[in-house]
């Protein structure tokens, strides 16, 4: 059985209007997140992975503007929905988000317990909400939940704050959790705790996760499917094994060769640097750094090609596959 | 090949309220040989950065002794100290805050040359700076630019050029690539490796990323709560980690290749505060292989388990 799509992003275009000119941050992104899956979105700084994440909540920060596209969530387009409706039903309810810096994301003048009950108070009595908050804190493996609920965010370590954040986001029983670099600010031993906790909870609550990260190794260990982004384009999407064992896009290949591994004796960087998206390169945006550039790459944007089942790549090298 | 830096029983306790102390480093001895790439690995709060700075005497230790090429430098002052500053350089973690925002690249790289009277004229200075810009893979068109005009990778190259232009023997690299993207990180590391070959350098590579340490370094010391838990040849430690902390750390480092993954040892809890660190072994609060009461009472001594492989744990 093929699980059905929970979120479908169709031809999303986002520009940022800055004093330097128009930054073409998202250049026609298509993406599908299925029910119950752990989807990883990987890319380097400035590739547009976080903007894509916030677009799902219709929260693109100023001076960004969604120019085109639709985001279908449970059959409805979030971008054309009434703003009140999004706030009432979607944002923080059906779709929630955890951030990179948990201590900055928590309200500094609210006690940890109250941050969680805030979301629950509409649904239940104050007493019941308090009880539920303690349960949630217990569920994210916080020792002495009663004590922590009575403390303020600044008294927490990074790992603890991220757990409180996760508890808060699970309180409304969301069907999609967007995790934007949730472990980047944490130590590896804490990162392992948080990721395994996240995996357990998602299974138990039957939610989907969009994990946004710059670290392909983390995705390889935790996700079911991966999307690789470069300069506002999704260049490759596939199941984790397909991407790791058989990467097809030259950028994905380059990214993997730049990651240290026990079996590799040498790191290979990708020459050049990420383009300025005020004046993105014409055609394929990766062509100035690619080793396989042909004339056509400089003229036209490559179409997304189906390589094998569930594996697509946007590169002229992959032509010969079916257009997908 | 002869030692370059040696530390003996270094302690650094920062004063904290009411006669309490943050025990950032609590008795570390180590030896770095010439032309080594030596990794200092550990999580935040383990004291690795403080130890790197103590080695350069950017921070003075509370007790213990530092030797550079056999000479005690713990208390040297004035001219000798200035000469020492030339020989020992550092590349900081964040190239966005380590370069003066209002100075041009030429001034940033060249200021050390002036301080140490290594050039006689402005022309010589420009030539020298240009030479080192080329060495780190940048051109003379960058000479008169400001740091904000450069990308993160280019800034880190400028920081490297600034450190190397004084012809040092020993360079501390304090997480030199942790603020860079992976594709840029690879190029900067390859550059550092090449420069070591060409310029006969010794590196202390401070990192929290064990997979980088494995790839880039020859010896490694793993720190936890101000103490050294395990020390030896990098390959030995990764093939046969012996301290329970190292074992856990190696197992949870994310790996791209499924074949390299082992069963994850997920540690409970977090690194304790260095203000009142636990008695005995600092790791006993999270250790899954605790031997018994001895771990809570006595601090384990470092023992040589195989040739050149030291472990501080009561298991052995």
Helix-strand makeup class of chain A: alpha/beta
The Rg value of chain A, from CA coordinates, equals: 21 Å
CATH architecture of the largest domain in chain A: 3-Layer(aba) Sandwich
Strand order of the largest sheet of chain B: 6-7-8-3-9-10-12-11
Largest interface: A-B, 43 and 40 residues
Main sheet characteristics of chain B? 8 strands, mixed
Distance between the termini of chain A: 21 Å
Number of helices of chain B: 10
CATH homology superfamily of chain B: P-loop containing nucleotide triphosphate hydrolases
Class based on secondary structure composition and strand pairing of chain B: alpha/beta
The tally of domains of chain A stands at: 2
Structural description of this entry:
The complex is a heterodimer of chains A (about 325) and B (about 325). Chain A has helices at about 50-55, 85-90, 100-105, 110-120, 125-140, 145-150, 160-170, 190-205, 215-220, 240-245, 250-255, 295-300, and strands spanning about 5-20, 20-35, 40, 65-75, 75, 95-100, 175-180, 210-215, 225-230, 235-240, 305-310, 310-315, 320-324. With about 325 residues, chain A is an alpha/beta fold. The two termini of chain A are about 20 Å apart. Chain A is built from twelve helices and 13 strands. The mean pLDDT of chain A is about 90. Chain B has one domain (about 5-310): Rossmann fold (3-Layer(aba) Sandwich), CATH 3.40.50. Chain B contains ten helices and twelve strands. Chain B has helices at about 50-55, 80-85, 105-115, 120-135, 150-165, 180-200, 210-215, 235-240, 245-250, 295; strands spanning about 5-15, 20-35, 35-40, 65-70, 70, 90, 170-175, 200-205, 220-225, 225-235, 300-305, 310. In chain B, the strands form two sheets. In chain B, strands 6-7-8-3-9-10-12-11 form an eight-stranded mixed beta sheet, sandwiched between helices. A four-stranded antiparallel beta sheet of chain B has the order 2-1-4-5. In chain B, helix 6 links the parallel strand 7 and strand 8 (about 200-205). In chain B, helix 3 (about 105-115) crosses helix 4 (about 120-135) and helix 5 runs parallel beside helix 6. The longest helix of chain B has 18 residues, at about 180-200. Chain B starts with a strand and ends with a strand. The mean pLDDT of chain B is about 90. The interface between A and B is large, with 43 and 40 residues.
């Amino acid at each position: 059985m093929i699980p059905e799509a929970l979120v479908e992003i169709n031809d999303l275009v986002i520009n940022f209007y800055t004093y330097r000119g128009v930054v073409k941050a998202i250049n026609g992104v298509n993406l599908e997140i299925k029910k119950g899956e752990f989807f990883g979105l990987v890319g380097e700084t400035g590739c547009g992975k976080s903007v894509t994440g916030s677009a799902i909540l219709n929260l693109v920060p100023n001076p960004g503007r969604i120019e085109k596209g639709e985001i279908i969530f449970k059959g409805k387009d979030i971008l054309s929905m009434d703003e009140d409706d999004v706030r009432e039903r979607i944002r923080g309810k059906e779709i929630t988000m955890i951030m990179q810096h948990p201590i900055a994301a928590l309200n500094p003048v609210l006690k940890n317990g109250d941050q969680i009950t805030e979301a629950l108070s509409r649904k239940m009595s104050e007493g019941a909400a308090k009880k539920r908050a303690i349960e949630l804190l217990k569920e994210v493996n916080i020792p002495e939940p009663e004590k922590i609920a009575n403390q303020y965010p600044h008294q927490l370590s990074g790992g603890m704050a991220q757990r409180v954040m996760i508890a808060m986001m699970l309180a409304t029983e969301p069907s999609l959790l967007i995790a934007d670099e949730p472990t980047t600010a944490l130590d590896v031993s804490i990162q392992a705790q948080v990721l395994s906790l996240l995996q357990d909870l998602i299974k138990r609550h039957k939610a989907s996760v969009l994990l946004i990260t710059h670290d392909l190794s983390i995705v390889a260990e935790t996700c079911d499917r991966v999307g690789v982004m470069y300069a506002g384009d999704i260049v490759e999407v596939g199941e984790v094994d397909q991407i790791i064992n058989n990467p097809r896009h030259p950028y994905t290949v380059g990214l993997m060769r730049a990651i240290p591994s026990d079996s590799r004796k040498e790191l290979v960087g990708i020459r050049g640097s990420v383009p300025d998206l005020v004046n993105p390169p014409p055609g394929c945006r990766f062509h100035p750094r690619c080793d396989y550039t042909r004339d056509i790459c400089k003229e036209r944007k490559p179409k997304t090609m189906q390589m094998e089942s569930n594996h697509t790549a946007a590169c002229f090298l992959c032509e010969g596959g079916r257009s997908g | 090949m002869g030692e370059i830096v040696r530390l003996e029983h270094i302690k650094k306790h920062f004063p904290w309220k009411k006669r309490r102390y943050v025990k950032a480093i609590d008795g570390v001895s180590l030896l770095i040989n010439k032309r080594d790439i030596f990794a200092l690995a550990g999580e935040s709060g383990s004291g690795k950065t403080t130890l790197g700075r103590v080695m350069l005497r950017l921070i003075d230790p509370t007790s213990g002794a530092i030797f550079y090429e056999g000479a005690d430098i713990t208390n040297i002052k004035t001219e000798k100290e200035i000469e020492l500053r030339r020989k020992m350089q550092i590349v900081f973690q964040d190239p966005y805050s380590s370069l003066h925002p209002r100075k041009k690249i030429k001034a940033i790289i060249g200021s050390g040359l002036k301080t140490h009277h290594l050039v006689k004229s402005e022309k010589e200075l420009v030539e020298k700076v240009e030479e080192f810009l080329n060495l780190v893979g940048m051109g003379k068109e960058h000479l008169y630019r400001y740091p904000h005009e450069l990308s993160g990778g280019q800034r880190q190259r400028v920081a490297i050029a600034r450190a190397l232009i004084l012809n040092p023997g020993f360079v501390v690299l304090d997480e030199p690539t942790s603020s860079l993207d992976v594709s840029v990180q690879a190029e900067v590391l390859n550059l550092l490796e090449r420069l070591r070959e060409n310029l006969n350098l010794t590196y202390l590579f401070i990192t929290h990323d064990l997979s980088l340490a494995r790839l880039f370094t020859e010896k490694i010391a793993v720190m936890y709560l101000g103490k050294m838990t395990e020390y030896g040849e990098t390959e030995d430690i990764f093939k046969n980690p012996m301290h329970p902390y190292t074992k856990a750390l190696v197992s949870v480092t994310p790996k791209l290749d499924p074949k390299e993954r082992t069963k994850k040892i997920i540690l409970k809890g977090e690194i304790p505060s260095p203000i009142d660190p636990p008695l005995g072994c600092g790791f006993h609060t999270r250790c899954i292989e605790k031997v018994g009461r001895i771990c809570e009472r006595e601090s384990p001594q470092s023992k040589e388990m195989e040739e050149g492989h030291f472990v501080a744990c009561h298991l052995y």
